[in-house]
Amino acid sequence: MSLLAAKIQETFVEPACERNRRKDADTRKKGCSKPPTPGAAAGGCAFDGAKIVLQPITDVAHLVHAPLACEGNSWDNRGAASSGATLWRTSFTTDLTELDIIMGLSERKLFQALRQIKEAYAPSAIFVYATCVTALIGDDIEAVCKHAAEKLGLPVVPINAPGFVGSKNLGNKLAGEALLDHVIGTVEPDDVGPYDINILGEFNLSGEFWLVKPLLDRLGIRVRACIPGDARYRDVASAHRAQAAMLVCSTALINLARKMEERWQIPFFEGSFYGITATSEALRGIAELLVKKGADEEILKRTETLIAKEEAIAWKRLETYRPRLEGKRVLINSGGVKSWSLVHALMEIGMEIVGTSVKKSTVEDKERIKQVLKDEQHMFESMAPRELYAMLSEHKADIMLSGGRTQFIALKAKTPWLDINQERHHPYAGYDGMVELVHQIDLAIHNPVWSEVREPAPWEDDPCVGERLPRTHNETAQVAPLNALWHDAGDFAEC
Ligand code: SF4
């Protein structure tokens, strides 16, 4: 079995993954990918998943060894933010042509690209991504990277997750494996402290981790490495000296968290910074793990003081939105930790949750939703676009919170919509992030555009037509007679 095949098999039996634990041996071997649903977007390939996880390491040059199209598939598709280096946003590819492949020039071209990047940009490291074409023609990127690292005198890291091996989620995990094999543990820091932590699976989307980091700073907790959001190569390379870790997006990097615990005794827990209660629980969790690793117990008291103060401020700020949002109905089509961590805070200010998706949620996530909602009927695994449209066009929700893929369903149903997934433009993490989310919900619901678009169009009440055009899902069934009416009315210009 090749090294890559062995790595893939290993991720399928990941013992820390609760979904894997529930499967029998045969199902486990088949992995986690499902065949694409006809009519639904297919999601990214394994290469895409690996690049999503690693690209936010900002002072690294990310070189895609492939024909041009692969880089176009993955470049900058998330709004992660950097507080310094901007190199990560520059697109590098070996841009292989048919001639390169037929003449066997691709490995040489890769080495030339590495040398050129080193000379022109002097990066902290270069990550080289294998893709379908270069894996199928048998390019040995491990060997080229090793040779280049010696010749050029900088870390050159092979990321072996070609697209065809599986899903985006598998690519996320293979990216974690690459960090374990080639990066973490390669730099020894000279400033190790008892309050050093790692945050794993945090992408700093729209700069939202910057709303959480000041809280940790106030507690005297240092983030040795936030992987990958706003990370620097050196921080990631020295992450093995942290005392504890928090895993934010458990499906992406759970293998990394588990193996760091086994190799370097860094205990971890799964938490979320979305929602007020979730943020407080996360801060408590970090403090408790640090105490278990030998930090002064006094940090627990400091954490409780900070939580009490910050929660009071956040609830007070949220209270100002109650008169405008009380009784408004929210549909959450997101999944994962957001499916429950947002619910509590929205309900606290009087909003009604008419449904929340549990597609990517763990068993624990689902249990929490049940506790908060007290009604399982509001949980749905996934909803077909047609059902989603019917629900929104019949005005069963005042706003939908979801990702970009479903935005046009909401817009077509003339329903306010807010992006809470990776392409969002506002930071929603921590206490301030929750207030920002409610502020954005308020702006979306009360945007005057909705009353405008729900008005009949001028031609719908035209006396020549006599009837207005259908506006709701149910009314579309009556389109045919209306078309006949238009036909009978003859030339519109005559009216
Ligand atoms: S790696 Fe393969 S599946 Fe992914 S974008 Fe490139 S060719 Fe397509």
UniProtKB/TrEMBL annotation:
Keyword annotations: Nitrogen fixation
Residue span, Nitrogenase/oxidoreductase component domain: 45-442
Compositionally biased spans, kind Basic and acidic residues: 18-29
SUPFAM superfamilies cross-referenced by the UniProt entry: Helical backbone' metal receptor
Pathway annotation from the record: Cofactor biosynthesis; Fe-Mo cofactor biosynthesis
Region of interest: Disordered: 18-40
Keyword S-adenosyl-L-methionine attached: no
InterPro entries in the cross-refs: Nase/OxRdtase_comp1, Nase_comp1_CS, NifE, NifE-like
One BP annotation, GO: protein-containing complex assembly
UniProt GO MF annotations: nitrogenase activity
Flavoprotein in keyword set: no
Function in brief: This protein may play a role in the biosynthesis of the prosthetic group of nitrogenase (FeMo cofactor).
Entry similarity comment: Belongs to the NifD/NifK/NifE/NifN family.
PANTHER family: NITROGENASE IRON-MOLYBDENUM COFACTOR BIOSYNTHESIS PROTEIN NIFE
Protein name: Nitrogenase iron-molybdenum cofactor biosynthesis protein NifE
Organism: Sinorhizobium terangae
Lineage of the organism: Bacteria, Pseudomonadati, Pseudomonadota, Alphaproteobacteria, Hyphomicrobiales
